[in-house]
Amino acid sequence: MTQSNEAAQRTPLALGSSGAAVPLTGTDDTAGQSSPGTAPRRLTDPASMRALSHPVRLALIEVLTLKGALTATQAGALIGETPTTCSFHLRQLAKYGFVEEAGPMPGRSRPWRITQLGWSVDGGTDTGKEHAVAARHLGDLTLDRQLERHRANDQGSRRAHTVWWVTPNEADELQRDIEKLVMAYRDRLQDPTSRPSDAKAVEVVILTHQFA
């Protein structure tokens, strides 16, 4: 996930979605489709940001991103929550277009899937106070989860730090180059058959900000 003038939160897979069969609440820019969209959903509505700003809901988005369609029972077993709790939060996520029903399955199974791969939040100074507060809360909550995973992973975790002296235009260009590099393997999130046999899920978190 990156943060710059446009604070972009992107879960490993991204974690989010909006489908044509799901009525959206709010005014976010979404691509109506039945399978996860490749472009991150641009969150412009504070209500949608607040709806996503919950640890269980973020955990559900993450697990659906990494594992594909899951029922509330299956998701609950993976994130350590009860099926009842997961069912409630999945319905709330669906209300705001982040997840949708994946289609009929044998018996009474009701699997859910994400509708888009990730999200971005405009954190510019020209946004209103309500928008800024909601965006900050979602960004902080997401970053806290990422850093917690990084600190807990003592195998294969890496850190790098540098400072650039660049113009605003150069900073934007660098940001685009970094995102292009990071997203090079994004298609493997949607297509498990494209993953090499020894591939593992690796979370990449990128933070950029003015140093002084």
How would you characterize this protein structure?
The protein has 212 residues and is mainly α. It is built from seven helices and four strands. It has helices at residues 46-52, 55-67, 72-79, 83-95, 129-152, 168-182, 187-190; strands spanning 41-43, 99-101, 112-114, 119-121. It has a two-stranded parallel ribbon with strand order 1-4. The two termini are 21 Å apart. Mean pLDDT is 80; it is low at 1-27 and 29-34.
Share of helix among residues?
25-40%
> Overall mean pLDDT score?
80
Based on CA inertia axes, which overall geometry fits?
A: globular
Q: DSSP helix count?
A: 7
By secondary-structure content and strand pairing, the structural class works out as mainly alpha
E-strand count: 4
Strand order of the largest sheet: 1-4
Query: Hey, roughly how much beta strand do the residues contain?
Result: 5-15%
Radius of gyration: 17 Å
The span between the termini is 21 Å
Extract low-pLDDT stretches. Answer: 1-27, 29-34
Q: Describe the biggest sheet? A: 2 strands, parallel
String of helices and strands: EHHHHEEEHHH
